[in-house]
C-alpha cells in the first residue's frame, strides 16, 4: 500500500510519479529523487493552471514557479522550503555524477509527502487524508531489485518530459486559432478556476491539524544549503561546537555550526532557531558565540543566523545584517576575511581615464564609491542618457573596484544576446586582464567578469557540480544591471535576491520617469538616483546632440478619414468599398482605426519614400545613412522589408533587413549593420535594437508604430 495513496483519486499524475519514487527509494536513490521532483513539478503546474491566485512568472521552470511571490503567498514559506528541498535533491540526482545516498531519497520523499498532503487538503473535491497520517521511512520498500538508473537515462527522461510539456502547450495554442475558439477556451478555464477557488475556500474552513514536521525540514534544508556551498559537515566539531565565555551560569555554549578554514580557524558560524520563530532573535546569541570564538582563535568569524527559511549574514566588521538566500563557500568567506586588512580606500585608487575620461563619468564613479565606502550602502543606480557612455563608465568602475580589492568577480546582466555580445567586446577592449566570459555561449569558462542575459543566469543558478552549486550566493562581489527598469524588477528580482553582492543599475530613462519599483530595488528615495547625467545636460555640455524630429506627411494616419474631406474620385472609391454585410457605409474612420491596419502598402511605401528622399545622407549625400525602423511586430517588420524590396529592387535585398531575435545568426546582421560601409544600411527592428545598441553611425530613426522610447545621439 503506497503512502501516497491519498493522491490517486484526484491527482493521479502526481501519484504515479510519487509511487514510482517511493518504490526505488533504497534500490535506486537517484531515480527516487528524480521522480519525487517530477511529482512536485506536476503538482505545481497543476496549481498554476487552475488557481487564479497564482500569477505566471517569467519562465515555466520549476525554480521560477516556486519562487514566484504569489506561490509563496498561497503555499506558505514552510511548504515553499519543502518544495525547494525536493527540487534541489532532484537536480542533484540528474546532474551530480557522485552517488546519491538513500537518505537523500528518504528526505525528498518525506517532504513530498507533506507537500502532497497539503495539496489534497487544499484542492481536493472529495475525501481528505487523515490529519494524523505521517510519512514513515521504515515503510518504504526495501526488497525491490532494479538496475541502477544511469544519469543519461534520467537526463533523457527529463528532456522528454520537458518536450512533451512544450508540445502540449503548442498543441493547445494551435487549437485556439480563432477568436471564438480562444474565447470558448478562456471561458472554460475561467469556470474551472472559479470552481477551484470555491473548493479551496471550503477546504480552508477545515483546520489543518497535520504535523508537517517543520523541525526536520529546517535541519534538512540548512544541511542541504551548507552542502551546496561545499561544506561536508563530516567532522565532529562542525556541529554543536562547545565554546567558553558565554554570559550564563556555566559560561558554556554550543554553536550549531562552525565553518572552519584550512588554517583551523573559524571562518563563520551558523545559529539555527526554531522554524516558528523569527531568525533575528538569534542575532545576539550568534554575536556572543562570535566573541567566544574570536577570543579562542584570534579570528572573528562571519555570523549567520537562520530559522531554516530566513537566513541572515552579519559581517559586523563591515556591514549591518542583511538577508541572504544561503551560505557562502569557503573561498568566499576567506576573501571576506582577507579584505578586512587588504581592501583599499576607493578615494585612493585612481580612475582609469583611458576607459572613462569625461568629467561626468568620473563623477558617477566617485559617487558610487562614496555610497559603497562612506555610506556603507550596497546598491547604486546610475542614470545616464543614451550615448553618454554608460558601459565605459561601469567598466572603469569595475576596474577601480578590482584594483582596490573590493571586487574579485563581477556579473554584467543585459536583456538581449546582442547587448551581451556588445558588452563582452567592450570588456575585452578596456579590461582584457579580467578574462571576460560570455555565459550565453560559453557556460563553463572561468574568468573575473561574466556577462549574461537574465534567463541564462536564472538557469545557471540551479547548476550543481558534484553536489556544489557552481554559482553560490556569494560568487559575485558586484552585479551590474544594464537598462534597469520595471520589467527587470518584476521578472528577475530573484537573481538579485539570490546573490549577495554589491548592485549597480544602469538606465537611460530620465530620473523623474523611473518607476517606484526600480528605486525600491536599489533602496533609494524615489527620484534620487546615486548619480545622473541627462540628455539636456549632455547636449548643453556638447557631448550629445538633440534629435531632429521629422513628421512624415500622412494626414490620414494622424487625423483619420472623413468622407466630406475626400475628393470626388476618392468618394467614388469609398462608396464602392464593401464595408459591412448589411451595406452600411460609414461617414468617417478615426485615426486609431486607420492605424490598427499597419499592413497598408501605400502607407508603408510613402514612409519608405520619405526616408530614402529626406533621411540624412552619408558619403557626400550619395547614400542614406544608417537607419533603424521600429516596427510594431515581426509580421509588420517583414511586410516593411517586402515593400522596400518591391520599391527598390536594384538594391538586391541587401540594403534593408529585418533584425530580431528569431533571425538565425542575428548577431552577424548586427555586426554588418554596425560597420559603416557594409549593408544593411536600414535595420528594421522588432524591439531588438530599442535600447543600448552601440552603433554611432545611426543617423535616422523611424517610428512606424504607436510608441517608442525617446532617442538621443552621440555627437
Automatic annotation (TrEMBL):
Pfam families on file: DUF4145 (PF13643), HSDR_N_2 (PF13588), ResIII (PF04851)
Keyword Lipid biosynthesis attributed: no
Keyword field contains ATP-binding: yes
Gene3D superfamilies noted in UniProt: 3.90.1570.30, P-loop containing nucleotide triphosphate hydrolases (3.40.50.300)
Keywords annotated in UniProt: ATP-binding, Coiled coil, Helicase, Hydrolase, Nucleotide-binding
Coiled-coil stretches noted in the UniProt entry, renumbered to this chain: 154-202
SMART domains with a match to the protein in the record: DEXDc
Cross-referenced InterPro entries: DUF4145 (IPR025285), Helicase/UvrB_N (IPR006935), Helicase_ATP-bd (IPR014001), Helicase_Restrict-Modif_Enz (IPR050742), HSDR_N (IPR029464), P-loop_NTPase (IPR027417)
GO MF term (any one): helicase activity
Span of domain Helicase ATP-binding: 371-528
Name of the featured protein: DEAD/DEAH box helicase family protein
Species the sequence originates in: Methylocapsa polymorpha
Native organism taxonomy: Bacteria, Pseudomonadati, Pseudomonadota, Alphaproteobacteria, Hyphomicrobiales
